[in-house]
Amino acid sequence: MSDPLEIRCPKLGGEVSLVYCLREGGDIPCPRTILCWQPYFDVETHLRAKLTEEQWDRCFGKTPKEKIVSLVELIEAAKKRQQTDG
């Protein structure tokens, strides 16, 4: 697939191509690929044709955590690191 179009990545804050998004997770795409690229073409159909069922489930099968839950987990992990570091 030719990849002349670049879009702004909400994770990185800069311009990225679809090729980057498809490889961001190693053998699986970035979990945001469908959300980001759907306005430009039927990316879900494209990904379902390319990915195995196992890859699809690893990438898109999980419900993402709410932002506040992720932030609380990061704060708790930082507190634990601070306690162990002295």
Describe this structure in words.
With 86 residues, the protein is mainly alpha-helical. The chain has one domain (6-85). The chain has helices at residues 18-23, 33-37, 43-50, 53-60, 67-85, and strands spanning 6-8, 15-17. It has a two-stranded antiparallel ribbon. Strand 1 and strand 2 (15-17) form a beta hairpin. The radius of gyration is 16 Å and the shape is elongated. The mean pLDDT is 87.
Secondary structure category: mainly alpha
What is the helix content?
Answer: 40-55%
Pick out the low-confidence regions.
none
Q: Strand order, main sheet: write it out.
A: 1-2
N-to-C SSE series?
EEHHHHH
Summed over residues and divided by their number, the pLDDT gives a mean of: 87
Give the count of helical stretches: 5
* Percent of residues in beta strands: 5-15%
Q: How would you characterize the largest beta sheet? A: 2 strands, antiparallel
The Rg value, from CA coordinates, equals: 16 Å
Number of discrete domains: 1
Gross geometry = elongated
Total strands? 2
Q: End-to-end span in angstroms?
A: 52 Å
Q: What's the short version?
A:
This protein has 86 residues and is mostly helical. 53% of the residues lie in helices and 7% in strands.
Topology:
Elements: E1 6-8, E2 15-17, H1 18-23, H2 33-37, H3 43-50, H4 53-60, H5 67-85
Antiparallel strand pairs: 1-2
Give the tags:
86 residues, mainly alpha, two-stranded antiparallel ribbon, 5 helices
